[in-house]
Specification:
This protein is an alpha+beta fold and 183 residues long. The protein has helices at residues 2-22, 84-87, 112-121, 133-136, 154-161, and strands at residues 25-30, 36-42, 48-53, 58-62, 74-80, 93-95, 107-109, 129-130, 139-142, 147-150, 165-173, 176-181.
Length: 183
């Protein structure tokens, strides 16, 4: 009997350790002077994930140890610029109970699936813009005169999508919202 419990405990430990090694987290800092609603879609998953992040705040998409989504890779990032009408939709957005240093925004999405349904229903007013992930995962090679971008091979791009990032910045360049890694 004792041997069965030891084997079961070993299996559980190996499961959690393997998930921990495969766990992914994407942290995005909002450098805009306005709020942004960020949606992440994971590869091979139908579940939408949303974070509403104000100016200077961070969107933290985190699937920690033991979470069934921990090993999934990044598939798409989309965003919407919310207005007061969206922020006042009490069925999908609420005031936060707890404000932390990482997530200091005062509002949060209540239910990801309801948020997706609401956005699809209001697509003409709130179009979701898809981020070009290649722009995030380009390698920059600096020399003394300039910085040049190097496109990734498909294998390297997939590897980047399956790696955690805590250095994604949301900013605006020439009137266009861009997601990029810190330089």
């Amino acid at each position: 009997m004792k041997n069965i419990f030891c084997k079961a405990a070993l299996v559980l430990v190996l499961f959690f350790v393997s998930n921990g090694l495969q766990a992914h987290r994407w942290v995005m800092t909002n450098k805009l002077n306005k709020a942004i609603l960020v949606q992440v879609e994971l590869l091979h998953s139908k579940n939408p994930y949303f974070v509403l992040v104000g100016p200077g705040g961070k969107a933290d998409f985190n699937w920690p140890l033991g979470n069934p989504m921990a090993g999934f890779c990044l598939n798409k990032i989309k965003y919407v610029l919310p207005d007061l009408d969206m922020l006042n939709q009490r069925s999908i957005i609420r005031d936060k109970k707890e404000v932390t240093e990482l997530a200091r925004d005062k509002k949060e999405v209540i239910d990801n699936k309801k948020m997706l349904a609401w956005l699809e229903q209001n697509e003409s007013k709130y179009p979701r813009h898809e981020v070009n992930l290649d722009s995030i995962f380009k390698l920059e090679k600096a020399n003394s005169k300039n910085v040049m971008s190097i496109s990734l091979t498909p294998e390297k791009a997939l590897q980047e999508r399956c790696s955690s990032r805590d250095d994604i910045v949301i900013t605006e360049e020439n009137g266009v919202i861009v997601f990029k890694t810190k330089s």
